[in-house]
Design goal:
single chain; 298 residues; alpha+beta; Tetrahydropterin Synthase, Chain A; 3 domains; 4-stranded antiparallel sheet; 3-stranded antiparallel sheet; 55% helix
C-alpha cells in the first residue's frame, strides 16, 4: 500500500519540480508572467525558477530580426511614380514595454506595426524629393531619414530600428517603355550633336590642311622660280663670258645645238638652200665661220 502511494507522489513531485525550472538560451530573453502580469524579466542565459501552474514563461528573440516590406508605389515630387520595397533590421530592447504594447501578439504583431511605420516613412521622405535623387547616390541619405522616422516611432513599443534599406526603386511596368523611348531619343539627339560637332571639326581641319597645301605649294613654286631665274642668270653670264672670250667658239656651239634640235628624225621636213648660213659648219673642216665669209665669191 505504501509503494502504491509513494510512486505517484514521487512522480507528482518530479513533475512539479520540472515545471518549476526553465532555461534561458543565450539567443533569447524571457518574461515570467503570473496571471498575465509581468513578475520577472530574464536577460542572462542560465536556469530559472517559477511557480508551477501559476506562472508561465514567454520567450522572445534577443537577436537582430529582419523585416521585408511589401512593394508599393510612391509618387516623388516630380510626379513620376516609382515601385519601392525595403528591408529593415530591428531588435527588442525593452521587453517589458514590448509585452505591454503588443500583448500576446509578440514578434508577429511587431512586424505588422513596423511594416506600417516603415511604409509611412518611405512615402513621407520619397514624396518630398524628385525621382532623380531617389535613383541616384543621394538615396543613402534618404534611407537614413526613413530609418530615423521608424526608429523614433518604434520606441513606443520597445523596439529599436537599426537600419532601413531600399532594395528596389523601379519605374512601373507601364511607364518603362515610354521612359526607354525618351532615353533613346535623348541619346540619339546627343549622338547627332556629337556627329555634327565632329563634322564641323573635320571641315575646319580639312580647310586648314588645304590652305597649308596651297601655301606650301606657292612657296615651293616661288622658290623654284627664284632658283630657276638665278640659274638662268648664271647660265647667261657664263654664255656672255664665253662669248666675250671666243665669239667663234660660241657661234659654233650654238650652231651645233641648232643642228641637234632641227635635224631630228620624225615626220617633219626642212627645206633650205645649200649655201644658207645654217650650214656654215657642215661644209667640211676648216670651212665656215669667218673663213667662209673671207673667201671671195667665185
Amino acid at each position: 500500500m505504501r509503494s502504491t502511494f509513494i510512486l505517484p507522489a514521487l512522480a507528482l513531485v518530479g513533475a512539479l519540480v520540472a515545471s518549476s525550472v526553465y532555461t534561458v538560451d543565450e539567443r533569447e530573453r524571457v518574461l515570467v508572467l503570473q496571471f498575465g502580469n509581468i513578475v520577472a524579466v530574464r536577460n542572462e542565459p542560465g536556469l530559472g525558477f517559477k511557480i508551477p501552474f501559476v506562472q508561465e514563461v514567454v520567450r522572445y528573440e534577443d537577436r537582430i530580426l529582419g523585416l521585408f516590406t511589401q512593394e508599393m508605389e510612391v509618387t516623388p515630387a516630380d510626379d513620376r511614380r516609382l515601385v519601392v520595397d525595403a528591408f529593415a533590421r530591428w531588435r527588442i530592447v525593452d521587453l517589458t514595454r514590448f509585452r505591454e504594447a503588443l500583448g500576446a501578439g509578440g514578434v508577429d504583431q511587431a512586424q505588422l506595426r513596423l511594416d506600417r511605420i516603415v511604409n509611412a516613412g518611405i512615402r513621407e521622405i520619397l514624396g518630398s524629393v524628385p525621382s532623380s535623387r531617389v535613383l541616384s547616390e543621394d538615396r543613402t541619405a534618404l534611407m537614413n531619414q526613413i530609418r530615423d522616422i521608424a526608429k523614433r516611432e518604434a520606441v513606443e513599443f520597445g523596439v529599436e530600428v537599426i537600419d532601413v534599406r531600399l532594395t528596389r526603386t523601379d519605374l512601373p511596368t507601364q511607364n518603362l517603355e515610354s521612359t526607354f523611348a525618351r532615353m533613346r531619343a535623348e541619346r540619339e539627339r546627343e549622338a547627332a550633336d556629337e556627329i555634327a560637332r565632329g563634322n564641323e571639326r573635320a571641315q575646319q581641319v580639312r580647310a586648314a590642311a588645304d590652305r597649308e597645301v596651297v601655301e606650301v605649294t606657292s612657296e615651293a613654286r616661288k622658290n623654284a622660280e627664284i632658283i630657276r631665274g638665278e640659274a638662268d642668270a648664271t647660265r647667261n653670264s657664263v654664255y656672255a663670258e664665253a662669248f666675250g672670250k671666243d665669239p667663234e667658239f660660241f657661234a659654233f656651239t650654238r650652231s651645233l645645238t641648232a643642228y641637234e634640235r632641227a635635224l631630228q628624225g620624225g615626220n617633219s621636213s626642212i627645206v633650205l638652200s645649200p649655201d644658207s648660213e645654217f650650214f656654215n659648219y657642215l661644209g667640211g673642216p676648216g670651212v665656215g665661220g669667218a673663213a667662209a665669209k673671207a673667201a671671195p665669191a667665185p
